[in-house]
Amino acid sequence: MKDICSIGHITRDKIVTPKNTVYMAGGTSYYMSYGISRLPEKVSYQLVTKVGEGQMGEVEKLRQAGVDTLCYPSRHTVYFENRYGIDTNNRTQRVLAKADPFTLEEVRPLEARVFHLGSLLADDFPPEVVKYLATKGLVSIDVQGYLREVVGEDVRAIPWKHQEEILAATSILKLNEHEMEVITNSKDPRTVARTLADQGVREVVITLGSYGSLIYADRHFYEIPAFQPREVVDATGCGDTYSTGYLYCRLQGMGYAEAGRFAAAMCTLKLEHNGPFDGTLADIERVMR
Fold this sequence. Notes:
The chain has a single domain, classed as Ribokinase (UDP-N-acetylmuramoyl-L-alanine:D-glutamate ligase), CATH 3.40.1190. The protein contains ten helices and 15 strands. α1 crosses α8 and α8 (238-250) runs antiparallel to α9. Helices cover 31% and strands 29% of the residues. The model has no long low-confidence stretch (mean pLDDT 93). By secondary structure, it is an alpha/beta fold. The strands form three sheets. The protein has a nine-stranded mixed sheet, sandwiched between helices. A four-stranded mixed sheet has the order 3-2-6-7.
C-alpha cells in the first residue's frame, strides 16, 4: 500500500517562450514524480503511466531516479506544444499526438491512500475509473485535462463532461483561476470553493498565480501567499509541483496552511528554471523563511 499513487501520461513537450524553445518530457505525473524524488522519503510513492515506444527512455530515467514506476503501453505518447507570451499566465497549446486512456483493468491492482489523477485531456480517466479508485482510497484530481479536448491539433476549452459524477468521487481538487470560472461561472474563488465543497469535495485547492493560493477545507478558508521568484523562466508544471508539495505534506499529517505554504515555496523554485523541481528541502525552507 503506497501513500500516493500518481496516475497520468508522461508527455513530450515543446515549450516556446520569448527567450527560447525547449524540448522535454512533461505531464502532471512527470513533474510530481521528479518533485517527490527530491524530497526526504517521508511518504511512499508510485507512478503509473502510459507511453508510446519512443518515450520509454524517460520511464527508465525515472526508475533510475528511484521512482517506483508501473508503465503500460500506448500506441502514442501525448505530444504538447506550449507557447508562452511575455505574461506567463497566458499560453496557447496544440496537441500533436494523443495517448490511450487509462482503463479499469489497469487501475484494479493499485493500492494507495491517495490516487492523484493528472488529467491532461478530457478522456484520460473515464468516470468508471475515477469511481472505482474512490472505493480504494482518496481521489485527488488536477482538473486541467477535463476541460480540454483536441480538435485537429488545436486544444479547445470545453465544459467538464460527467462533472457531478466525478466530483462526487473526488476528495481533493486542484484548479486555477481560469478553470474555476469554466466549472462554476464564477470569478470569486471563495464562492467557487464553497460550490465545489457542496458537490462533495473535501479539500478545494485553488492556485491564483502571483496572487498565491486559496485552500477550503472543513468549512475554513486558508489564504496562502505566493513567494517571489528570483526570476520567472518557465511556468510549465507549476500547478503539478504545487500538488506534489501539498500532498507530500498532507500525507504526513500536516495542516492545510502548512501544506499550502510548502507547496507554494516548491512552485517558486520550479518557476526559476525549465523542467521539474530539482531543489532540496533546505531550499524550500529558505524560500518559506
